[in-house]
Design goal:
This protein has helices at about 30-45, 65-70, 75-85, 105-115, 170-195, 210-225, 225-230, 240-250, 260-270, 310-325, 325-345, 355-365, and strands at about 20-30, 50-60, 85-90, 120-125, 135-140, 150-155, 160-165, 195-200, 235-240, 255-260, 285, 290. By secondary structure, the chain is of the alpha/beta class. It holds the Pfam family Iso_dh.
């Protein structure tokens, strides 16, 4: 089970004793359609337990939705999420590598429109497996950096050759938001583990203004709140050496905070330390909404074969519940997943097994 109680950071408070929660389900593309049902089944298994009841709304987004409707993220999906849902699960999106007129990533747009400024990605090995000992949380800024998608192409007048440029945006406001939630997570880990370290990842030795601002503001947030966060050790690490050390000495890292691009790369890389992207969850967190999202992509090479790993989605469902303020229900899911991974009897091909998606789902459900 994850050793951070994210529920203490929950951004929503519910007044009903027996809560009826509406969850938006957005499968997206590829294996998203195969793994999001796992999240629904797990929540249905929890219904009537912990005083919770779940309702579900099926919503559209993704590349296929763009091909069908001309919009990768329909307005209706956003409106239903804002007006009718208490949280959501997002599967995966298959984005083209070449520019397609009118298309942009729906998950990036979703994060922006719902104000989901933090992408929280716990990466934890399971005791009793062959994975390196890892227990870190990568907190990725979710709204800016190169992901603002401000690009241009032109012909250089002097050389007559093509040039492409992209703007990297780092703002004080977004950095303060991500630094605060990262420190809050570190503080909760301190309360559970008796120690905690925040590592600020940057490349300010080259990008002195943009990454320099990120580094500067993170330190300001820590220093100005020493009375609250002083128990958290504060470190900084240049991103390239961070990657090296993360693979060589993963046990040295606890909570890592990074700009959008570095956080994306670091968290995907860290997944290799625990066997597969198929087991790594995430939560997109804002001030009033949370979206659980497995870290893997749409995996078109295995889509439709029934062998995709549902663990990342199941864990993302637990994170969703934690951030919505339901830690007991979340821990029931975490314990069942860890039991499955520890036994190593029923596992999908990405972990070296021969089990199907449904067999893994059934095994986790049987352990709840």
């Amino acid at each position: 089970m994850l050793r951070t109680s994210f529920s203490q950071l929950a951004r929503r408070a519910y007044s009903k004793s027996a809560e009826s929660l509406t969850i938006g389900l957005i499968p997206g593309d590829g294996i998203g359609k195969e793994v999001i049902p796992a999240g629904k089944l797990v929540l249905e298994n929890l219904s009537s337990k912990h005083g919770l009841k779940f309702n579900f709304v099926n919503l559209q987004a993704g590349w296929q939705t763009f091909l069908d409707t001309g919009k990768a993220l329909p307005d209706e999906t956003i409106q239903i999420l804002k007006n009718d849902c208490d949280g959501a699960l997002f599967g995966a999106v298959q984005s083209p590598t070449n520019k397609v007129e009118g298309y942009s990533s729906p998950i990036v747009a979703l994060r922006k429109q719902l104000g989901l400024y933090a992408n929280v990605r716990p990466v934890k090995s399971v005791e009793g497996t062959n994975d390196k000992p890892v227990d870190m949380v990568i907190v990725r800024e979710n709204t800016e950096d190169l992901y603002i998608k401000s690009e241009r192409s032109y012909i250089d007048e002097k050389t007559g050759t093509r040039v492409a440029e992209a703007i990297k945006r780092i703002s004080e406001t977004a950095t303060r938001n991500i630094a605060n939630i990262a420190l809050e997570i570190a503080l909760q880990r301190y309360k559970v583990n008796g120690k905690a370290t925040l590592t600020v990842t940057h490349k300010s030795n080259v990008l002195s203004q943009s990454d320099g601002l990120f580094r500067e503001v993170c330190r300001e947030v820590y220093e100005s709140n020493k009375e609250k966060f002083g128990v958290v050790n504060y470190n900084e690490q240049i991103v390239d050496s961070m990657v090296y050390r993360m693979f060589r000495e993963p046990q040295c890292f606890d909570v890592v905070v990074a700009p959008n691009l570095y956080g994306d790369i670091l968290s995907d890389g860290a997944a290799a330390l625990v066997g597969s992207l198929g087991v790594v969850p995430s939560a997109n967190v804002g001030s009033s909404f949370v979206v659980g999202e497995p870290c893997h992509g749409s995996a078109p090479d295995i889509a439709g074969k029934g062998i995709s790993n549902p663990i990342a989605t199941i864990r993302s469902t637990a994170l969703l519940l934690e951030f919505m303020g339901h830690p007991e229900a979340a821990q029931e899911i975490h314990k069942a997943v860890e039991a499955n991974l520890r036994e190593q009897a029923i596992k999908t091909p990405d972990l070296g097994g021969k089990s199907t998606t449904q067999q893994v789902i059934d095994d986790v459900l049987s352990k709840m």
